Amino acid sequence: MDFVGGLRADGLPAALSDPGRLAAVEATGLLDTGPEDVFEDLASLAARITGTGRAFVTLVDGDRSFWKSCVGVDASDVGDRQNPVRESFCYFLVGLAGEPFVVGDAANDPRTREHPSVGPMRIGAWAGYPLLSPGGKVLGSFCVIDDSARTWSSADLMTLATLARSVSAEIHLRQSLATSQEAHRVSAELAHTLQQGMLPAALRPVPGLDAAAAYLPASQSTDHHIEVGGDFYDLFRTHGTSFGAILGDVCGKGIEAAQVTAMARYTVRADADQHPSPAGLLTRLNTGMREQHAPRFLTAVYATFRLAPSGLAGRIALAGHPPALVRRADGRVQQLGVPGSLLGVFDDVHLTDVRFRLKAGDLLLLYTDGACEARAPHATGPGSSMFDEDDLARTLASTHGLDAAATVDSITRALAAHHEGWASDDTALMALRVPPLP
After folding, report:
1. pTM summary value
2. Coil, strand or helix: which one is 111?
3. CB 368 within 8 A of CB 426
């Protein structure tokens, strides 16, 4: 293979010995350290979603690959969680300057069939994405190994790429929080980047549907400390002509909240086509959170739907989450959904699917509790003024006739006017509207 920078004397990529890269690896502070939940959980999620059974978070210096996480491998001692770099596929990522490396049949692929680890490590198929420093140096890899040859699906590769970015972001944030005021500025940027990574850059267009969403972060304290919030949303195709809309709220903030957010969003996407029932899918998410010992619980609302000439038909389930609101074409507002168990606390949850229909001009609003628990500044006690569910319903009714984007904007402005620009909690909003007839 042609590696960027050529080869060093032992035939491995010269980039392995790049001083800048080695310094970046050392600066992570992760070499020769024990397992940690955040890396174990992300690797376990990758192994489960891809069905491989083995997943690694690896740091690569000039001589070895150190396994910060090695799910599916019995290696409890730090000294056993590594192998010589020559015996690791990870050097391909370093030599390719951060490009992913994917092999479907390691024993027959000309790039790997002579590799010394194919047999001893039972590598049938291997897929890895780079862990990158803020400056773009390759720190190592986030990879999965299958005992048998296989064809990697686009969903597998998208999941690995996203989780690799999450591991990189976790490393970045740790380094940033341990440095000076300048590093604190960098950590704020990374927190923002990670938060944006938990949300789609834009809602996926759904033919025949008008959709809009917004994420409104809580106001920051006077010391400018910035944490990643736990509110998230997504809109995606499940299969055929069916779509899913998820909106959730993870308890708390910070890396643990972001970890649970990533687990929830990508588990829902990965399993949606196998669970047409919203209650069934949220139950599956609860099982996954319990199996992975998720450090935070979450509430969620999930709806599946199909579009037809007469409008939209779907089902919705609430998991410890506020009811959805439906604004009918005539301006009436109705609550939708049966209260259910929150996720990540109990092995058994009780969730209920509710069928619903939207006709031309109707709008469905999903929201987190920041939209119905907003307080005026410094308001406390029984007489304090809270923007509650009734206020939200009245505000939604006042948007009669507005499209999805204008509705979300109107609610956002109403919340800002109530708390006067000082939000005590994050807020996520999603509006789905069937356009009125011409």
Report:
1. 0.55
2. coil
3. yes
